[in-house]
Amino acid sequence: MDKKELIIKEFAPFELSDADMQNAINQAKILNFNKGEILYKDKSACYGFLLVLSGALRAFVLFANNKEITIFELEKGDECVLCAKCIAQNDELEINLEAMDEVKILVVAPEIFMPLRLKYPKLANFVLDLLAKRFNKSIQIMSQALFSTLNERIKSYLLSKANNNIVEKTHEQIANEIGSAREAVSRILKELESSGLLRLGRGKIILSDDFKF
Amino acid sequence: MDKKELIIKEFAPFELSDADMQNAINQAKILNFNKGEILYKDKSACYGFLLVLSGALRAFVLFANNKEITIFELEKGDECVLCAKCIAQNDELEINLEAMDEVKILVVAPEIFMPLRLKYPKLANFVLDLLAKRFNKSIQIMSQALFSTLNERIKSYLLSKANNNIVEKTHEQIANEIGSAREAVSRILKELESSGLLRLGRGKIILSDDFKF
Predict the structure, then answer these.
(1) What ipTM goes with this model?
(2) 3-state SS class at B151
């Protein structure tokens, strides 16, 4: 699908006028990002409305002490509206996005999207539902981080990311995504290796057939 | 102010029609809760739009393992719309509210509030901003729980709750509000008492003048 078809399909439920729909189509962009690329340039960067066409992104929050935690992930077909300009003016929290592999996204700039959101209640309510979904997911992820042991969190993470028993992640990436420290993650991975539950390779982890939560 | 004046003041920015405003006024209720009371009856309970007139509430999430964490607090003047029916249909997460002291709230039932939200984009966007604010606050609170030591979290909590150096909370309440276990909280409080930073009383904690973060 080209961007015109994508926008028409995506925005159909919101009952935009023909002129507004055409404007959204004209202003929509398809952007590509490489694995590891951060999708923001500065504090005021904002993508407006975002739809993941391929690949996956993770949303993470950075704290003053340079620690970070992944609060949710976006996969193909997921929409997102989370940037400061689009939702809340809030200097205290900055949600960042990182491409977890090659990523293609469709975006409608905030200058176009914001007025639409203020004009069409169905669109405003769609964004509200999206935000509620991300809110729920964030609380689930953070509560797992709070209430599970690091060992449990790493196991659950590896199981969720394994593709044919292989997880292509560095210790640093795992630490960032589950909100822990690299040293602690490495220590537990080595313990799991000693127990025969996995093998550590270069940039990847090979789970044994016995590996389970 | 009576409920009519409260609703008119609160809903003025949303440009409701006279009929819709009158309907909201007719349906609004002022409710009172006692300290410790939980503001929900069952999974489907929902207060629609809620404005805190006096007292304070805490919103917390309960997990399968019976652990809970406070994700934000609501004080006088704070509005909230967070129940399942009003925002997201999501069985995985249930946000509960507890009265932290004597509480008086103004509510507009979801049956009235939802159609208004779908009709008036300004109202939909107001709810979106509210949710974004709670989202941010939740992430701040949970990240503090994740990234601070328990000692730091307890100190910071006591400082935020102290009234004339007195914190009227049980160890259990503190544990619940910061997402920890009662035993762990009691242990640290005893350590702080041994250091002369506070005195433990019945249902209250008296901070010494030297107490600081």
Answers:
(1) 0.71
(2) helix
